[in-house]
What does this fold into?
Amino acid sequence: MALLTPYSKIPELNTATLLLVENEEQFQCRLADAIVQREKDVNVNVRLARKLPLPVENGETRPRIDLVVFIVNLLSEQSFLVVENSLNHLSSDYFLGKVCFVVTSARCGAVSQERLLSVRKLAASHRCPVICAEHQTDDGVTMAATRLLTILKVSAGLSPMPTTALYMSTLTRCTVPSDLDED
Amino acid sequence: KKNMLDFFILGLFISPGSAVNTPVRRPVTRRSKSYGRSCVEPPSLFWQTPGHLTTLGHRIPTSRRAAKSHNITEKVDPEQVALLLDGEWKLSYVTPLFLFRHTQLKLYSKRLAAFIIAEKQQGVAVEVGLEAGFRVSFSAVLGMAETEEDAETISSRPVFGADGSKPVWQGWLTCVNGDPEYLRSLPPDFTSLPLFCSRGAESLSALVKSWFQRTFDCSFGALGLSSSTLHWLAALWTGCHPAAGIRYLKLGWTMPTQPPLDIEYSVDPQDAWELWNSVHKEDGADERISVDEVQSFINGLETHFFRHFKIYLSSGTLTKVSTALGSAHHHGKIKVITINSDYISTVLTLLTECALLKTPV
It folds into this structure.
């Protein structure tokens, strides 16, 4: 079983489902509340998980997941390791625009720069965007929710302009300047 | 009774000889793929500024030279080295100093003394016959320069304070093995001494820093040691075990629980050495340690801990590393023990790099 696939279930009308994966479970709840409160036109379901693979028992009742968001807290190495392991449980179809990385505490002085760089490299190798979020203030949470909603609507096929998830992710994917370019 | 302030500088005279300044970053050329639509390239500028907040940007070294036990006392006066190593130092980074001349140290010491006296007397009624004076002495420690960029060292006589009075505050500025491209790219009047270590009263540190800021137009900032730096130090010190026994390797972690849990993990030196040996390949002549080896070393220690206690150490922060050769704390305090002063240049190189990495552009 193992892999989570995006297209194995039928989508529901005017609904989008988001999966937030975070090891520490700090930011997930606030972000989920903010997302649900902001969006009035579309039904947004937010599901929370600590890591992938998701439990098998819920497999039948779980709706089709349109966007998987990995939240990495840069203050802990464990957070990054869990995300790395979880990526193996996603089917490769997800990486065509249905995965996004959110990073918190990126501006904290105590964080070593190598961690942010390794997250960006991971995202760049999977062609996914990286959003830096501020999780301590309400404004920061709202801003992150708005950005995620924008991406969610595109990847669920609900955006009014004819935009596909693949086009969007190609525009917004993370790139890391390689050492060759800098020298 | 005179109070005396000792101020040492590990001096580095960077020769501004080269006429051509290589800039630190050349304009980044993106290899563009032709999609047939020009609006698709370059994608990253829509969402992220490639902001380099610090001077060295993304250039983080992936391998470093191992500690060689070369005898540093040949090059540097052993008395001065001993004074440097005694006790715990608080670290900060410094932006490059403008118009700093190693030849004018005496003038600087007079000015700094006058400044401190003036600041101390602000708001205090001046009594007649007040004798309180501060004596400041600047001196340059020769012989710490490492690479070819650090061309000439200054031949000035190091001045030690008068006998009898104890120093109330000590501090030093240094640059050891700084990034050569960065140093070459500085404009000619700037001297870069990015690492500042101080010990003593906080108020005096603040006064000295503000004097420096006014005189040389530089700025100071607190330098914390990130967990990767602490990992390097742990690996370096463990690698020195056969030559100079470390006696213990202690690592302190803080777990983000309620209330926060502090874990102290002591490793027997022989076991640590064996683990390090199994990870690190001896390259022969050029002893370089790569960041992967350091990471495997730390992973080994962490998985061992997990196997016994079922706690993921990587979800907490590493706060302290200590061995018999020295200790480092993640708030930016370092202590190198006098016994093995030979490894100080490697430690200083690492700290200089940290300071350069943190200095904002």
